[in-house]
Amino acid sequence: MRHALRIIHAADCHLDAPCRSLSPGTRAAVDASARAAFEDLVTLAIDRRADALVIAGDLFDGDTVRVATAMWLADALERATTAGVTVIVTTGNHDPSSGCAALHRVRWPTESFHLVGGATPVTIEVAGATIVAAGHEAAREARNLVASFPPARPEVTTIGVVHAHVASARSSHDRYAPCDAADLAAVGYSYWALGHVHRAQPIAGDRPASYSGALQGRDFGETGAKGALVITIDDVGLVDTVHVTLARVRWEEIDLRDALGDVRTIHDLVSLVEPAFDTLRSAPDARPDQEWVLRVRLAGACAIQAELSSPDALSELAAVLCERLGALDVVVVDDGIASTVNLASYRGQDHVLGLALELLDVAGLDDAALDELVPLTLAGAPADPIERRAYVRGLLRGLDGAVATALLADGAR
């Protein structure tokens, strides 16, 4: 006979993982959000009266864990088990059982808690249902762990928990513990709680299976809402899945590539960013207290290319956007902003712009010509000749559009 079951499915918490941001304030906010998200994860399990909280691998980011984190984590998990929630944690490629000392630095709960670190599946009975879990023993698990899971018993609600790469997942992650949707379906489980892929997504197939995604994004490779899944399975086996956003800091991109055709001033550009951000902020999966780290990507022909041609100008624009949007941090990236001037029509022509473009082309290709054009005492340039040329060419990159704008503007006066 099937029993109704509710689990909270999380994975890839990566506690104490570094945040890849140059801003100290952003790093501190992400670190605090990661801990707060885990606290909210436990609260979610208690408030929803979950039978189990399952964490499908990579609770830790690596071998080390801070003393404060180890003590806090023990208290958080104890809060869940004391409230009657069974907690099941499996190991992943970042915290394998044979190579992660952090696993031994935490005082795990002594009741209603299971740490699964072996590749051989472990069966755990929870509220009349069965949860089967396996973990990574080594950092580079090449075996198909799912292939060793036992078949479900007829009419018994059975959940599989594993950190694995499913072939059909939208992911650029390494193929550790590889399997496919057919492997998941073969054992007849009611649901598969998956970890490893940081983007929350269902896996198409004959049996319900999902990645919960990371608990907290830490760079622009982890955009979107991050949190956990509430999985409810009724007594006839129907599965309901609801994603709950837990991370307070969210990474997002605003893509304005090839959207700059009507931009004539910086105000025009800011006016493009603001409604795009409003759309993100009003999304159903955004928290009301969400903090935002934004990357604005610019590319294409733009009338103010010259104003945006230097890193300092992009940094100033980012600072303005950060203040106007109320974001935690903003980065503006030049992915190929081009001049609206047709440079090809001036190349090789008897025109001051044609000469300037020729000089830039020569400097980009001819080392001797570059050395003649650039003074030896150029501020900020490395002393080594090879490094110096690379530095100068970096400064010249994209300068043809700025030169064209300036020269043509002077000619029009």
Brief summary:
Helix content is 30%, strand content 23%. The chain has 413 residues and is of the alpha/beta class.
Characterization of this structure:
This protein has 413 residues and is α/β, with parallel strands linked by helices. It folds into three domains: 5-245, Purple Acid Phosphatase, chain A, domain 2; 249-338; 349-412, no CATH class. Helix content is 30%, strand content 23%. It has nine helices and 17 strands. It has helices spanning 24-47, 67-82, 181-186, 266-281, 311-325, 352-365, 367-373, 385-396, 399-412; strands at residues 5-10, 52-56, 86-90, 113-116, 122-126, 129-133, 158-163, 165-166, 178-179, 191-195, 201-202, 209-211, 227-233, 239-245, 249-257, 291-301, 329-338. The strands form four sheets. A six-stranded mixed sheet has the order 4-3-2-1-13-14, with helices on one face. α1 (24-47) runs parallel beside α2 (67-82) and α6 crosses α7 (367-373). The longest helix has 24 residues, at 24-47. It is elongated. The termini are far apart. The mean pLDDT is 88.
